[in-house]
Input
Amino acid sequence: MVVSKWWRMVLPAVLVAAVAVAPGAPSSAAEGVAEYERIVNGDFSGGGVDPWWAGANTRGSVAGGEYCVDVTGGTANGYDALSGQNGVPYEAGQSYTLKFDARATVEQPLSAVAGEAVAPYRKIARTEVAVTPAKQTFTLTFESTLDFPAAGNGQFAFWFGGQSFDNTVCVDNVSLVGGVLPPPGVEPAGPLRVNQVGYVPGLPKQASLATGSATPQTWTLRDGTGASVATGQTIPKGHDAASDENVHVVDFSSYDRQGSGYTLAVGDAVSAPFDISATALTGLRYDSLAFFYHQRSGTPIEARYVGEEYARPAGHVNVAPNQGDDAVPCRADLNCGYTLDVRGGWYDAGDHGKYVVNGGIAAWQLQNSYERAVRFGDKTALGDGTLAIPERSNGVPDVLDEARWELEFLLSMQVPDGKPLSGMAHHKIHDEQWTGLPTLPHKDAQPRRLSAPSTAATLNLAAAAAQASRLWAPYDTTFAARALSAAEKAYTAAKAHPDVIADPNDGTGGGSYSDPTVTDEFYWAAAELYATTGRYRADVTDSPLFGGKSFNARGFDWGSTGALGDVSLLLVPRELSTDAIRSAIIATSDTHLANMAPAGHPVPYRTADGGYEWGSNGLVANNGMVLGLAYDLTGTAKYRNGAFAAMDYLLGRNPVDRSYVAGRGDRPVRNVHHRHWANQADPSLPTAPPGTLSGGPNSALQDPVAQRLLPGCAPQRCWVDHIEAYSLNEVTVNWNSAFAWLSNWVAERSVPPATASGCQVKYTASLWQTGLTASLTVKNTGTTKWDGWVLGFAFGGAERITQGWSAVWTQQGSAVQAGNVPWNARVEPGASVTIGFNAEKTGIHKSPAEFSVNGGPCTPA
Ligand code: 9MR
Output
């Protein structure tokens, strides 16, 4: 073995058998000092090569768990044939231990080189060893003379060149441990984790404590001045699999005094600060919905709506260097013979792709948020003038305006009449090649191409457009008709071509969004068409998913959409019974609550193997939606508490002790994977805007940063706040639509409900031929005060409210809601509030027979 002078020390640990370096195991040092593995995919256990690259005169592949490089002979220098990986961090003055196994078909020298990936290619250390047909393990140590940050220009490479003959050299178990800087994004998590935004009076307030102790500990709640205001004992939960920690729960639910800057303390551990307030969480509904305007393609993002920091020129509108989205051809191999004008829509995520599959579910969820509010909640909160968008005073609820931005794009992706597969929808449109980070949309110079149509995309279009049609009917009959006709055409086309599946390997320049099973998309689309038209009933009932079969503990997402159809069937009742759907929502919510009860950081989400997936936070929010619906349907507090617990987890009560929502909480996510909000890569660019949800933990470690930083992580801890960690920290329209839905629900339900037995309403009306004036006296006959209330009832005939007083009045069809105004929000037991309205009418007016307050019944007096 020849040792070059750069190595401080070489341990001649030459073994014939492969040394057992546990695949991907984190290095744990003696004396508790953290040691960080700096090589990614050093054991090749997954069968993949990434992020190793092979340069000129080499061809690398993984075979039999080793990385084998075919080397062409006849080169002059070692570096004429090399393979390595970039972005390896080095710290000057720190020592490193390199280990690897190697063998070769024919004995030859091999150099292991630590250095710089770009000119002037400075070296930190180079050593040459002799590799033989017998596998040997080499252990080398060196001290770095240079500094390279993670994801910078540090490189580790093997040099194979300088030989006259062809050869094959195989390496395995490559490990480089050293340095003291924790990898970026891996910040130590505090042990005492809270919802960093806030808790709501009258609702549960819980935190989680990671501790070695098995016995209860004393907790103290301090107010904003630091004064102790409450104290109690933690509840030990034992070992928690999702976090691989011993966890206690702190329950301070009984403390209800509103204020800000509260902290919890247990011993030396102090939590992030938080509020206790009825409005602590209400702003999130608008923060989360604001995301969609930011993501709009084909229009300038204006400072007056988003502030100077986030404003940017229109993307993909044919201004150089953009190639524009106004006449996008199909990919060359499709040879479709037409172009489509597919401007507009939302960029899916941190990339500039626009995908019908994912766009469909995201648009549906914004529309559903509104449809649910009409049925169960407060649609005024989503009404016209509520969002900072250009359409804010057009007389249409803003959330529908925002969804329409995407709907128009989805409709534009439909194959024109007279063309092959007409009526189907192209699966996606995106760049030919992936662009770098950062790249603002208007600076993207890549050609844009349409992918082939797919059945899944076609059914997404059908479902979202059918749903849009019924919601837009009161505002724009022309659009409503156009949406329905496109939906029906798409549905017919999907039935004619029921198994056109997008290529799962088509991931160049954009994601694949391939979904092999479309039974659920067929059910979803049929349910939407039935809800809107009353036709298509047999398509709904003939589906194997009919009757709430889609709900489960893992949840629904872009590839698993049957539950969306069920939710629409529930919200838009027709003659089909919705009992089975209701039961499924309640049973699934009970499963969530049972899973959450023993958990250290309770969250409604459970996969078969306990792992966390790409976009787990989106699934958490969607399961929060299911719990929210269970509460809407039953008024049972445990379901409401479960939905709020999902929010607690997203806002900081989690093992990484971070708020996954940008700009909200004491330790929010910053470095999302996004080509504009790329502050980590370019400090002149912004971090993610407030209300943007990170994808969240993913224990499958599907990007090089995750693989480098998180080997062996427990599921809920598999996350870092790093821009390159695209499988952990991207942001997408479908995850933010789930979060927006939950945020809107949580905002509504931050008002404590009235008890079912505690309400009475006296309705009196004076009538004339074409109208009436009504007065309602609503009395709190229960034993607890109301801090806010919403009265609901339905007209029996053709009445239309023209004016109301002492409440915020809204009417959708026959459904009426009256919400408190600030001065009459509080109603003590035994007290009443009187409100009223004027209405136009045709025909006979009858007093409403049923009333509700805050979702519970209110008896007519
Ligand atoms: O959200 C998608 C996730 O479910 C998949 O596992 C992953 C890999 O196929 O792709 C995710 O979607 C990405 C899409 O393909 C491209 N835009 C960004 C999306 C989020 O990372």
Q: What stands out?
A: Confidence is low (pLDDT under 50) at residues 1-33.
